[in-house]
Design goal:
mainly alpha; 2 domains; 17 helices; cell adhesion; about 300 residues; Plakophilin/d_Catenin
């Protein structure tokens, strides 16, 4: 667990170590099957996998990434579509949104397991069943790492979490735990998921009222609470920017007075949360059909 946080070179060596990732996954699966999601070894295993999933999209070798993710369906040779770890241009991103996702392997080995739906479901199961804060935080954090990029892998993971594995109820429950680091990581994961336009309505329906409910009445005092507040505002921004319906949901959940109060604190110490709230307000005002409702 300590070695897995030793930086890019350490992560690379551990990902390449034959059988290591498979053994960690195997152990966690056994712990869940035996109804032992709270043992210390499971926590250690999940924390290692969390660290090994950090910056995965960037750090995998280009040739390896392309061999897994090169889109093979109905794409002509002169399209020159890169793997998901290649060019980050807007045109490429749009193309990746349009192309079908590659089918995952039924029997993944080694590093392939890190983004496979089997492990995604394991993380969601641990979030739901474990009562250890570090295990919950590491499971949420691993999913946050895997959904942080812009290519087919993060897109596929996000769809699996929201649509295939029905993970939103488990993540929503973590918004209301008392442990601030767990809550912060849950919000950061939702922020990543909410960047995907095809998932925004599902996320808004499931968790938007909960996000509003945990917004403070004013800018909070601690750094971690301030960061969490900023992340909530940016998540709400993603969910409401293109949807008047979702903006109305925020309004009916009594979110507007909270966002206004947070935006009005211009202290440097709390500027991150205030700036995020201001960005959200500016976006909400763009829904002209809601102006009269806002004024009321």
């Amino acid at each position: 667990r300590n070695m897995s946080s030793a930086g890019p070179e350490g992560r690379k060596k551990m990902r390449e170590c034959e059988g290591l990732i498979d053994s960690l996954v195997y152990y966690i699966q056994g712990a869940i099957a035996d109804h032992e999601p709270n043992d210390k070894a499971t926590e250690n295993c999940v924390c290692i996998l969390h660290n090994l999933s950090y910056q995965l999209e960037i750090e995998l070798p280009e040739s390896y990434a392309q061999s897994i993710y090169m889109q093979r369906r109905n794409i002509s040779n002169n399209d020159k579509t890169p793997g998901c770890f290649g060019t980050r241009s807007r045109k490429v991103k749009e193309k990746q949104q349009d192309t079908p996702l590659p089918e995952e392997k039924s029997n993944p080995k080694g590093v392939e397991s890190l983004w496979h739906s089997t492990l995604i479901r394991i993380y969601l199961s641990l979030i739901a069943k474990s009562t250890r804060n570090y295990t919950q935080e590491a499971s949420l954090g691993a999913l946050q790492n895997l959904t942080a990029g812009t290519g087919p892998m993060p897109l596929a993971v996000a769809r699996t979490v929201v649509q295939k594995a029905n993970g939103l109820p488990s993540i929503r429950a973590m918004l209301h735990v008392s442990h601030p680091a767990v809550r912060k990581t849950a919000v950061s994961l939702l922020r990543n998921l909410s960047r995907n336009p095809s998932l925004q309505n599902d996320i808004a329906r499931e968790v938007l009222p909960d996000l509003v409910s945990i917004l403070p009445e004013c800018v909070p005092g601690s750094d971690i609470a301030c960061e969490t507040t900023a992340s909530i505002c940016y998540t709400l921004f993603n969910l409401t920017q293109s949807s008047s319906h979702n903006a109305r949901l925020l309004l009916s959940a009594h979110g507007l007075p909270k966002v206004i109060a947070i935006s009005m604190n211009d202290s440097n110490m709390f500027s991150k949360a205030s700036r995020a709230a201001s960005v959200l307000l500016y976006s909400l005002w763009s829904h002209t059909d809601l102006h009269s409702a806002y004024k009321k």
